[in-house]
Task: inverse folding
């Protein structure tokens, strides 16, 4: 994916600049052309000679360099690339990008470019969490700047926390994803995914039904995120107000039984994500509307619905490679999720708290814990769309390693 891609690497002044040589080497191993701009700050950590030698090109440093401007002006420099990668991106360069300052070659190139920009932030944890940086980050994201990392860990300043530049492998993965996407491909291209979403409606008679409070927001977001990464997605959706996601085949159903049938028909698939809040029971339903005024109030008799997730996860030659379920609980969240994972033969369970105060049902955010064979990973409270994107990324990593 990186073969013959032209990457303009801006190395700004953070300790993570020492990772730039390795980054350049790995990019070139993959066939990318790398050209470097080194800021004054960056030059405290890595020499222009190193960057020039490894990139096989000149390392550009000065805005007012007559020779460079004649041979390769800053405008050309910023346009003769497929992407500009700022790694490391300091708090300072992020702030300058936001305000459009252009007082050196790097910031001028960033302002003059018409190409996509990716940043790999790296700084002290307090600088990273400072509202100024966080608001700059948001502005840059809103301007479609791609962001990779930072991650949490030991920082060079001795403190511990978020602010470490993403690993070289993560930056390469992010670039690969970017180019895949721009080619209309993704890490899940060629794979089929089946997603269930929303509630089910279980009829009592022709005009009444039993339902639950699921909005379908999370399941629909998962379907959209998988499609974004290139998967061929079938979404089996119970009744919801959510619009059909773009690029996804949607089958609308009402009852659990219909959902089961639609899912079976949508197979084979490599990936299954069951996010629907399927009714556990359906009432024996009357053919005609039940009339009031009879001697006694009607009694509902229930029969158990099929467990779609457990059925799809059953061992066998046609079992999808990765089966993921949700566990909506109001107490003992993680323990219940672990039990459910084992009982239903599911690979991953996303456990989420749906107790009344959590705001999960119908809300836009979700706090989930990813339970796998390896252990439990607690994610911060995220918007449902972000939970879906994170899950899709995790699925892509699984696919890279196992499929
Ligand atoms: O057992 P419980 O309903 O808590 O399990 C939740 C998980 O199982 C969710 O992933 C849900 O989509 C799935 N499920 C299902 N069919 C059912 C009940 C639950 O697919 N009948």
Result:
């Amino acid at each position: 994916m990186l073969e013959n891609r032209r990457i303009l690497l801006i190395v700004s002044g953070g300790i993570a600049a020492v990772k730039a040589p390795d980054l350049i080497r790995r990019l070139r191993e993959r066939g990318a052309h790398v050209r470097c701009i080194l800021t004054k700050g960056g030059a405290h950590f890595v020499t222009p000679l190193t960057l020039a030698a490894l990139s096989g090109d000149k390392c550009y440093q000065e805005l007012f360099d007559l020779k460079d401007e004649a041979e390769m002006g800053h405008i050309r420099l910023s346009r003769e690339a497929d992407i500009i990668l700022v790694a490391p991106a300091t708090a300072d360069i992020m702030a300058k990008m936001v305000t459009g300052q252009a007082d050196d070659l790097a910031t001028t190139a960033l302002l003059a470019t018409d190409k996509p920009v990716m940043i790999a932030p790296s700084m002290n944890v307090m600088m990273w969490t400072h509202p100024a940086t966080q608001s700059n980050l948001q502005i840059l994201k809103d301007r479609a700047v791609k962001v990779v990392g930072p991650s949490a860990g030991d920082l060079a300043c001795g403190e511990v926390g978020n602010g470490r530049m993403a690993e070289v492998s993560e930056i390469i993965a992010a670039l690969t994803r970017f180019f895949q996407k721009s080619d209309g491909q993704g890490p899940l291209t060629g794979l089929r995914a089946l997603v269930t979403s929303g509630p089910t409606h279980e009829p009592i008679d022709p005009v009444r039904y039993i339902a639950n409070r699921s909005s379908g927001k999370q399941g629909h977001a998962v379907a959209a995120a998988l499609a974004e990464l290139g998967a061929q997605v079938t979404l089996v959706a119970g009744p919801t107000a959510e619009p059909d996601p773009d690029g996804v085949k949607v089958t609308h159903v009402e009852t659990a039984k219909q959902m089961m049938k639609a899912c079976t028909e949508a197979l084979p698939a490599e990936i299954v994500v069951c996010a629907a809040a399927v009714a556990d029971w359906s009432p024996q339903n009357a053919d005609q509307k039940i009339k009031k005024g009879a001697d006694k109030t009607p009694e509902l008799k229930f029969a158990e619905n099929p467990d779609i997730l457990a059925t799809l996860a059953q061992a066998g030659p046609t079992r999808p490679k990765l089966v993921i379920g949700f566990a909506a609980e109001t107490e003992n969240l993680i323990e219940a999720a672990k039990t459910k994972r084992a009982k239903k033969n599911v690979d991953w369970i996303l456990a989420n708290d749906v107790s009344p105060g959590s705001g999960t049902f119908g809300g836009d955010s979700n706090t989930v814990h990813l339970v796998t064979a390896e252990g439990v990973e607690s994610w911060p409270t995220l918007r449902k769309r972000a939970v879906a994107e994170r899950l899709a990324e995790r699925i892509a990593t699984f696919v890279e390693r196992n499929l």
